[in-house]
Amino acid sequence: MKILFVQNMNGISGSELYLLQLLPALKKKGIDPEMLVIFTEDTGRNKSFVEQLQKGGVITHEIYGHHPLSPALFLKMRKLIKKGGYDIVQSNLIHADLWMALEKLLFFRKMKLVSVKHGFDEQYSAKYGFNIEKLNQSLFVWIQRVTGYLIDRNVTISRGIYDLYVNGKISRESRTEIVYYGLNLDHISKNGLERKNHNRYAIILGRLVKYKGHEYLIKAWQKVAAYDPSLQLVIVGGGACQDELVKLTAELGLEKQVLFSGYQPNPHQLLHYAEFSVVTSIFEGFGLITLESWHHQKPIVAFNVPALNEIIEDNINGRLVSLYDVDGLARTIIELFADPLACRSMGENGYKKLGEAYNLGRMTTQMESIYKSMIKS
């Protein structure tokens, strides 16, 4: 079985990490995966992604320098697909969905196309969360509905996204199913990592964009700092809201407590020595940081929103706080700092759940089953 995976990308984030895990695992099961990376320019940020796949024996193709709707881009994709003779093409995220749907419509009517939904329209979700009542106002939704007629199978990474697509009539229930992420992080050593920050700290990882909710966490840290000014928050990531968040930190007088470390290609050293992780997103397609945190036996404090509340069990492997409840967020953070034993116990429970429910073998087997059923149909 030969499968082409297609994604518009500029660096490694959640969906890219999914591909880095899945494709080599499929290769080991006798499936022949290839990867097509597309972006408007070669920024160099995809180099690590390509190198890691190649080390796993996965052939990788790259196309740069074209407008997303350039005829030249479509002709290059057509040439690759025709030459490759793929049994299945898997698109990841909206750009690839549109590209592959058009390739199927114009050139390859018998193409078997599967789409994996890793998230949802960020602008819509930042405003409405997972509420389906305003879906018709989103251009993203209309593109997904149109391309959906040409997609043979949809895979969502959480129940929250599944409900949006099915209940919002974006995709048909008969063509949509859930496959949760699975990770194998055994290659990440938890020994010998040098500790650079010797203060007690919590960590939040992710792009500095509006829907990630960093502003609520910084505001909550006022009460954390009042409780114990030595406790710190390490913010890992960069993005459009960075200047705004740095300014807010200064206005609240928290420069010594809230530290911006910028983008870190390997944040596991910081994560390993943190007391716990915090995720203040107002929605998440999945939230891979939960699994990465559990790998280091760290619990997660998060807002009680999809899909975080599908993964985290309150008071068992993390803590859930009502959405936008800054005071409740501060209280929960203080409680975890004040009770290291409970923190450690929840982290151990998370590590156990990672191995049992969110392992790479389970995800790979589920995806393999989908591919085989598509070939038979």
Give an overview in words:
The chain has 377 residues and is of the alpha/beta class. The protein has two domains: 2-184 and 359-376, Rossmann fold (3-Layer(aba) Sandwich); 201-357, Glycogen Phosphorylase B (Rossmann fold). 45% of the residues lie in helices and 17% in strands. It has 15 helices and 13 strands. The strands form three sheets. It has a seven-stranded parallel beta sheet with strand order 3-2-1-4-5-6-7, sandwiched between helices. Strands 8-9-10 form a three-stranded parallel beta sheet. Strands 11-12-13 form a three-stranded parallel beta sheet, with helices on both faces. α9 (242-251) links the parallel β9 (232-236) and β10 (258-262). α4 (93-106) packs parallel to α6, α8 packs across α13 and α11 packs across α14. The protein is globular and about 65 Å long.
How would you describe this structure in keywords?
alpha/beta, Rossmann fold, 2 domains, seven-stranded parallel β-sheet, three-stranded parallel β-sheet, 13 strands, 17% strand, globular
- The total count of strands amounts to 13
Give the strand content. Answer: 15-25%
Q: Determine the CATH topology of the largest domain.
A: Rossmann fold
Shape: globular
The averaged pLDDT comes out at 94
Give the biggest sheet: 7 strands, parallel
Structural class: alpha/beta
Oligomer: single chain
CATH architecture of the largest domain: 3-Layer(aba) Sandwich
- Using the CA coordinates, give the radius of gyration: 21 Å
